[in-house]
Design brief:
This protein is mainly β. It has three domains: 79 residues, Elongation Factor Tu (Ef-tu), domain 3 (Beta Barrel), CATH 2.40.30; 79 residues, Elongation Factor Tu (Ef-tu), domain 3; 34 residues, no CATH class. The strands form two sheets. The protein has a seven-stranded antiparallel β-sheet with strand order 10-9-13-7-8-12-11. A six-stranded antiparallel beta barrel has the order 1-2-5-4-3-6. The chain is globular. It starts with 7 loop residues before the first strand and ends in a 6-residue tail after the last helix.
Amino acid sequence: MFTGIIESIGSIRALTPKGGDVRVYVATGKLDLGDVKLGDSIAVNGVCLTAVELPGDGFWADVSRETLARTAFIDLKAGSRVNLEKALTPSSRLGGHLVSGHVDGVGEVIARADNARAVQFTIRAPRELAKYIAHKGSITVDGTSLTVNAVNGAEFELTIVPHTLAETIMVDYRPGKQVNLEVDLLARYLERLLLGDKAAEPNAPGLTKSFLAEHGYLKN
């Protein structure tokens, strides 16, 4: 688990094809690796990876085909800057929100505009994730815990203050940029809980307006 508070900007040093997937070397910059052991988890742009080698100034990790297919990791190359966060501990401050490091989908930055000293971004999420994105709710973008300021269909707006711009790769975002999205865990679990016994049925449907009306969550 993670908090979505980025600890360091690192960079991809190498991407090596290995047995059908990829092994990646991440240079970790100012991230303190003194307490990191083999097998520990580190989030790279919001993707939870396992350290399999620790050469000193970074770590090697294996990236599966599943991860390559479902995240924006496929767009990374040697030299790409990445957000880094070590897994939280019981004594960590939960400054952001609970983040699993399991990416739900890939979004696209469609607009960037100055807003006083901040920068406002508009991001388009995959349609199937739109129902989990709420005004003033939490969302994780490339591993960064953020607050949604406005929602319009599958598009949502973020206002990023100077500190976050300086401490994350968001300063580099331009329209067309592909980003990893993880929706709020509570929204995911709430959807499953509301299905009740139907959740155990094969091919159980997601929440629909008719389902909510049938079970008294909506009034005609």
